[in-house]
Amino acid sequence: MTKRIFGYPIMKIGIIGGGQLGKMFAQKAKQMGFYVIILDPNPECPATQVADEQIIGDYYNENKLKELVEKSDVTTYEIEHINTAILKELFDKGYKIYPSPYSLEIIQDKLKQKQVLKGANLPVPRFEKVENFEVSFFEKFGFPFIQKATKGGYDGRGVVVIKDKNDLDKMLRVDSLIEEFVDMGKELAVMVARNLQGEIKCYPVVEMVFDESANILDLLIAPARIEKEIEENVKEIAIKAVEALDGIGIFGIEMFLTKDKKILINEIAPRPHNSGHYTIEACVTSQFEQHLRAICGFALGSTELLSPAVMINLLGEKGYRGVPLIEGLEEVLSIEGVSFHFYGKRLTSPYRKMGHVTIVDDNLDSAIEKAKKVKERLKIKSEVER
Q: What are the recorded Gene Ontology BP terms (predicted)?
C-alpha cells in the first residue's frame, strides 16, 4: 500500500450547511489541520466563526454547490435538505462527496428510507404511503398512528400524532406516510461510522428523553440503561442499516425499544447528530473527528466510552425572542464534570437549539442528577419578553 504524504492544509473540506453541526465539525477539522469551506445563505451562521472560507448561497443553488465541490477535496453536509440532483452529477464525474448523494436521496424521503430498510429485512414500524385523505383509508390502517411528511421534516416538524378520527383535522395535506403508533419502553440511538475501506465502528447505545411540547431531544443518557443482549441487537441492526444504504461517514440511527422488548428503526441521519454530541467529552474519538476520518479514507478511531455522560440541549426559553442572554452560567460551571457549548446564534426564539451541556461522571445516576440541576438553572432568554 502506497503511503500518502500530506502537506498543510491536509485537505480542503467542504461543508454544506453552517449551523451548529457545521461549526463543531469545522472546529475539529481546524484542530486537525484541514482547510474548511462552508456553504450557507447566512453570512453570520455559527460555522463562519471557525471556517476559513464561506460561500454564501442557498442549499439548492446549483452554481454555488458546484463551486463548493470544485474547491474542495472532499465535500460533506450537516443538513439533509439540499439539492441531490447536482450533487449526483458531480459525484458521477468523480468528485468526492460523502455520504454519497445517492444515499442522501434515499434518506431525504422518509418513505423511501423505510422501504429500503424493510427491503433489507430490518425491523421498522408498520407503515403505509398516504394514498388519499379519506377517513376509510385511515380506518383501514388503524388508529392511533403517526403521520410523517415524506420530505422536509426535522426536529418534530412535519410529524403529527393522530389518536382517533377526531384528530384527522390535524392531518398534514402533503406527500406523507403513516406509521403505527409504537408502545415504547425507551427511545434509543446509536452512532455508526463506516469509512471508504468499509471499516465499521459503533458507539455506545444511548437513551433519549424528549421534550413533549417541542418534540426535541431533551436529555440523552450514555450508556443506555438496557440489557447487554438488547445493546448488541441494537448495534447489529444499526450496522446492517448503514450497510443497506452503502453509507460512508457517520450516521445517527434512532430506534424504538417497545415495552415487549422489540427493536424498531425510527429514522436515520446521514451526518453528525444531536444524539452524538456527548462523544466530544465522553469518548476517545468524537463523532465529528470520526466523520472526518471516514470521509477522508483514514482508519476509524476508538469509540470507547471513557466515562458515563448525560447531554442536555439548551433551548431558547418560551416567550423570548431576540439577542440571547445566558442565565445561570456561573452557577452551572461550578458543577464538576460540566462542559458548556454555545453555538453562537445571533438570535434566540422559543425551543431553538442554542447550545448543549454535557456532564461526565463516574456514576451515571450522579450525572443525571447534575443534569437536572443544570436544566433548572441554565436558561437562554433575551432582553425583551415577547
A: 'de novo' IMP biosynthetic process
Residue 266 marked in a binding site:
yes
Answer yes or no: is 370 a known binding residue: no
28 is in an annotated binding site: no
Tell me: is residue 180 an annotated ligand-binding position: yes
Q: Do the Cβ atoms of 74 and 11 come closer than 8 Å?
A: yes
Please, are residues 370 and 359 in contact by the beta-carbon 8 Å criterion? yes
| pLDDT tens, position by position, 190-211 | 999 999 999 999 999 999 988 7
Q: Binding residue per annotation — 148? A: yes
Q: What letter represents residue 204's amino acid?
A: P
182 is in an annotated binding site: yes
| Residue 316 DSSP symbol | B
Name the band, by pLDDT with cuts 50, 70 and 90, for residue 218. confident
Using alpha carbons, list the distances in angstroms from residue 93 to 12, 125, 138, 181, 270: 18, 37, 45, 43, 22
Please name which of 252, 204, 207 lies closest in space to residue 225, comparing C-alpha atoms: 207
Q: Which amino acid is at 312?
A: I
Q: Quick one: average pLDDT of 132-142?
A: 91
Catalogue all structural domains in the chain, each as residue range(s) with its CATH number.
12-97 (3.40.50.20), 126-180 (3.30.1490.20), 184-382 (3.30.470.20)
pTM of the shown model: 0.95
Euclidean distance between the first and the last CA atom of the chain, given in angstroms as a whole number:
62
**Does the annotation list 187 as a binding residue?**
yes
